[in-house]
Design brief:
Oligomer: homodimer
Strand order of the largest sheet of chain A: 3-2-1-4-5-6
Structural class of chain A: alpha/beta
CATH superfamily of the largest domain in chain A: NAD(P)-binding Rossmann-like Domain
Number of helices of chain A: 12
Number of domains of chain A: 2
Helix content of chain A: 40-55%
């Protein structure tokens, strides 16, 4: 049970966290803090938060847990603003899509209170955003990756894991660097590639004709290019090193496929395509098996 | 009304064409020809075809329309096998995903009967394949691109358009070269890029860890990498020139984005992402508007 939780950013991510804990009867009082009073009023009207934080010192008084669920570029300023007011028993966690930069920001901002900060990344999202998009089961069956610091106590870690489990999430642990390399490959690079393709097509003189004949394959391939440009600019910049490494590997891969195509090497091209198809089928099967096991386990 | 239609390849594409025309009461007799007797028996049992063609001369006797709906690499051999038996009143059309190569194959195989061949490409597909996947409304609201030859008569063209309209399709006309350039950009390149990404990840030493954290964005981005490797090898090879041009443009685009990222040029990166997001939103809105107009028009 949490007596008081403070949430910075009461949109989809923070709002869904609050709703899930409320649904589980696991939190008595939720305080919301945000940049626009309209969002905070909306979140209060929707029952996501119980109180709009009037000041940071007041909000933090007696808080068990603070969740920072704002765009990742704001994390350091928020940590700096709360540091002086943080009580010894309060745990701070976040929901940022990159972790090494968040850890660096936390070390810079938190000083001797760094042990109270537990970095986390819930792997969940929807097309829509804001308090109105928040739903209590957003995290049901989804992964949450914790990237604990050596300074974190096992008791605090347990508390954060407990909160996410109440939301229905499946907990994983990686180092911040592992996390960033993994998500550069399976999330940040695909976003960059999808944006790159749509921008490339949109800037062609016959773009209108091209879009006219784009069909469902194109729609799904580019769905993630509908994501927030500001958010993905921040993620790309925050994870620059790992993303550059993945992008370079991919450009090398494309140059290799280009050579096969230019040489009319049908078997070579087919081998690449077939390996991809096989790997994707195995991946889809393992997802379905894991989902089935999770549901049967009632977890 | 068609008295007799002959379909080469009674799978998803050919089978759905037959079912749609049967549903419309627009065909008396459908003859199927294929490589495996199992597929043909299945198609007959499902009511897709009325007769399994015993021989090409028999099948073509009195046929109004021949549809070639096999993998595109077989088109030339099929045209060569039917050429001598084709009656003057029979129209031949196809459903291949590439058109300049099909036109070249037709010119080589059809000789003085080339006017009877009308190249076409229905833009429709499903995850599944074979006669069991065929459905009568596959083409409802979908585009069919005709790439007519100068030799085609307007009467024959009208007949082919009439058949596709009975299937519920919306007819478009392009030159074969235009068609291939358009689909290289909006279909063939995205397939190649999706295959390339999954193959790239699958060959990394820590592939298992990466796939473990791939989520819904990755799933949609790579959906088309679940497509048939043989089919996409053939399409890539058949449309080599246009696909290489699009791939080169894309690699140039990636190198440009790489430079922005390496220089930590946030505004530059955001401009690319924002342009893509805006273009995709406009495209989605225009699709929805067109779909609404089509439904309201009862077309």
């Amino acid at each position: 049970m949490f007596n008081k939780i403070v949430i910075f950013g009461v949109g989809l991510i923070g709002g869904s966290f609050a709703l899930a804990l409320k649904n589980a009867g696991a939190v008595k009082h939720v305080v919301g803090i945000g940049r626009t009073s309209a969002s905070l009023e909306r979140a209060k009207a929707l029952g996501i938060i119980d109180e709009i934080g009037a000041s940071i010192p007041d909000a933090l008084k007696g808080a068990d847990l603070v969740l920072i669920a704002t765009p990742v570029a704001q994390t350091e300023a928020i940590l700096a603003s709360i540091q002086a007011h943080l009580e010894p028993g309060t745990i701070v966690t976040d929901a940022g899509s990159t972790k090494a930069d968040v850890v660096a920001a936390a070390r810079a901002a938190m000083g001797e209170k760094i042990a109270q900060f537990i970095p986390a990344h819930p792997i969940a999202g929807r097309e829509s955003n804001g308090p109105g998009a928040a739903i209590p089961d957003l995290y049901q069956g989804k992964k949450v990756v914790l990237t604990p610091l050596t300074e974190n106590s096992s008791g605090d870690l347990e508390r954060v894991m407990f909160a996410w489990k109440l939301c229905g999430a499946v907990i994983h642990r990686l180092s911040a660097e592992e996390h960033d390399r993994v998500f550069a490959a399976v999330s940040h690079l695909p976003h960059l590639l999808a944006y790159a393709l749509v921008d490339d097509i949109a800037r062609k003189p016959h773009a209108e004709l091209l879009f006219q004949f784009a069909a469902s394959g194109f729609r799904d391939f580019t769905r993630i290019a509908g994501s927030s440009p500001e958010m993905w600019r921040d993620i790309s910049m925050a994870n620059q090193t790992a993303l550059l490494a993945e992008l370079d590997a991919y450009i090398t891969q494309l140059n290799g496929i280009r050579a096969l195509l230019a040489a009319q090497n049908g078997p070579g091209l087919e081998a690449v395509y077939a390996n991809a198809q096989r790997a994707r089928q195995n991946w889809m099967s393992s997802i379905e098996a894991a989902e089935k096991a999770r549901k049967e386990g009632g977890d």
